[in-house]
Amino acid sequence: MVNPERFLTDLHELRQFGASGIGKGVVRPAFSDADVAAREWLMERFEAAGLRVQVDPVGSVWGLADGPSLLLGSHSDSQPEGGWLDGALGVIAALEVARAAKESGGPAVSVVSFQDEEGRFGITTGSTIWSGAVPLETADNYTDRDGVRFETARRRMSHLVGDWVDPAQFTGFIEMHIEQGPWLDKAGEAVGVVTDIVGIRDMRITFEGEQNHAGTTPMHLRKDAVQGLIAFGTALNEMLAPVVTPSTVWTIGHVAVHPNASSIVPGKVTFSLQWRDSEAARLGQMETIIRDTAVGISANRGLSVTFGEMLGLEPVKMDGRLRDALSDAAEAYVSGKWRTMPSGALHDATNVARHVPVAMLFVPSINGVSHAFEEDTSEEDLVAGLNVLDGAVRRLTN
Amino acid sequence: MVNPERFLTDLHELRQFGASGIGKGVVRPAFSDADVAAREWLMERFEAAGLRVQVDPVGSVWGLADGPSLLLGSHSDSQPEGGWLDGALGVIAALEVARAAKESGGPAVSVVSFQDEEGRFGITTGSTIWSGAVPLETADNYTDRDGVRFETARRRMSHLVGDWVDPAQFTGFIEMHIEQGPWLDKAGEAVGVVTDIVGIRDMRITFEGEQNHAGTTPMHLRKDAVQGLIAFGTALNEMLAPVVTPSTVWTIGHVAVHPNASSIVPGKVTFSLQWRDSEAARLGQMETIIRDTAVGISANRGLSVTFGEMLGLEPVKMDGRLRDALSDAAEAYVSGKWRTMPSGALHDATNVARHVPVAMLFVPSINGVSHAFEEDTSEEDLVAGLNVLDGAVRRLTN
């Protein structure tokens, strides 16, 4: 049987690596000192649970059972300013289920903590490369916002790494995660069984105009990159309105202005545009609108526009058999207090699906907050999620 | 007689301090190593010209003639990415006119290079404090964009500084400067005699919303600070249209987004808004519109808005007697190739006007470019400006 106290104790212990900010905040980005220390701690825990520990070339930490096994897990790296459960919950829940299974001579369960799910370099970088979606040689040229190359960053764990882990040994993958959205919390429900994971596109866009004096350059002669961004953002919202659904999202989350001085007409702005939807076709429609709008706005204003490499992942349907096991377990443990729902967030499960059937389980995020220090979930819901995950594993392996 | 070769040689020599970037670019912000070294070089030059050297408590460098004198000069600090003439031209032209006057037993001419005209800390910081417009104790709390306090930065020159310079000894002030706008260059004219300097307002505005997950937070539940900036920028352009003139300008030149990551709905943005006009009443109207628009936009979007301290300077009329001397000299040296015009740029002369009559002389900026490495002016126009300045000084002191 899973041990809720042991599970919660490990969760709090993992939080100590990079514990920061208000509430239960965590600062543990991929390959930071806190992240590497946390992964070394996980290696000890996996070993103590009787699992064979392996670190793959990109720093994902694996605890392997012998023979064919069901794989559980998530990631233990965090956003630049993250919470204590995003990723960590799925890893520690997996550890507890695998540990309990070992103790009771139960089913073979393996555990993984993928590296850089939060995308310091790419998007779900560790599981993307492991899945074969992007070759390591390509990913090694990814850089973070400070220009650090992935190849350089992953050397930080070179003293730990071994070979790649063969996916053929896994019969399926279940990832437990916080919802990171408002719906379960608003409805007072304990668990969500995921139906599919939305697809994502992420692109850098740069407008270049003419850097000039902010007092002597008449408005009609300016080529102001920030005014270009403002006009683009307004036009894009109008252009997207007719094609999006209530669950479609798009975000300008990163903005870098050059030279970024109040007395200078800005000559250049680079910004991120990320959009998500559960239909690949709509993601494509949106890309066309985004590119056309950027080209149109820049042409009108004497700006040049350049588009960075587009990172992206396709929408993924959850496996029926794994979903049913989660639904049956949810009905058994939290009858009437669970729902099926799509995942608006991207997860490592998207990549793992290239090799084995996958499914996901959500627990509520208080006020729907995540990717922030305030992120949290009640202990009652955390334990409910643990029991549903454990129940699903038993149903699948009996 | 002024010596054009000596004048151009000194200009190029000053450019060596912080020479950078393409063309004749200069990186010499206030209190940087390059700026301090340049000011020490100016001290030697002033002394060699027979002037009494004094550095005031904020780092402005003075070369003083005995008894009552006419003051000429500008500033030798640069923008983060500036040109070789912005400020430097007025200082070296002043040096050459004062030097030539000394040599020929001519009129008493003093010279100044004010500190931080480019506003690393405030706006025309050095001359603002010297003029009494802002007390030193207040200015010491100004910080640059990296959070460095003015009080800390000015310690960099503590080994050089002496007392304040008494303005009572000056009979007037003339500042020669590049136009930093397109008009003289477009018209093929050599010189502009300034009629008045526009007023300026500069304020930081912050929108705060809710930092959240960019995939799981539905658009209708977001409190996105960057979307707030985009909506504000678009609305402001519409609201200002009916009150502005063709020469009114407003600029969002600095933008800082938090946490500035592509997968996070941005919770906070701080940006600069600077606006300029030759009428104080219009500057006030614009401030009301800016504040009302920011409050309205933030209220509609569940954002909070905060306004930073507003820095500003009033529009200033040039002195009639000094203007006439410049116009007569311009007509004598470049007949038919000069005009009278307002200054859209702010200058130290604005502050000096609190103590003595002031006037300004412009030379063309090629393609109107300034506050950029590409800034330049033809040698012919530089020398024409020098001769007109010298001619005006002779007319005023005969």
Automatic annotation (TrEMBL), chains A, B:
UniProt binding sites for Zn(2+) 2: D86, E118, H371
Top-level taxon: Bacteria
Cofactor note: Binds 2 Zn(2+) ions per subunit.
GO molecular function: hydrolase activity, acting on carbon-nitrogen (but not peptide) bonds, in linear amidines; metal ion binding
Cofactor needs: Zn(2+)
Keyword Metal-binding: yes
Sorted UniProt keywords: Hydrolase, Metal-binding, Zinc
UniProt: Zn(2+) 1 binding residues: H75, D86, H177
NCBIfam families: hydantase (TIGR01879)
Protein name listed in UniProt: N-carbamoyl-L-amino-acid hydrolase
Organism this protein belongs to: Shimia abyssi
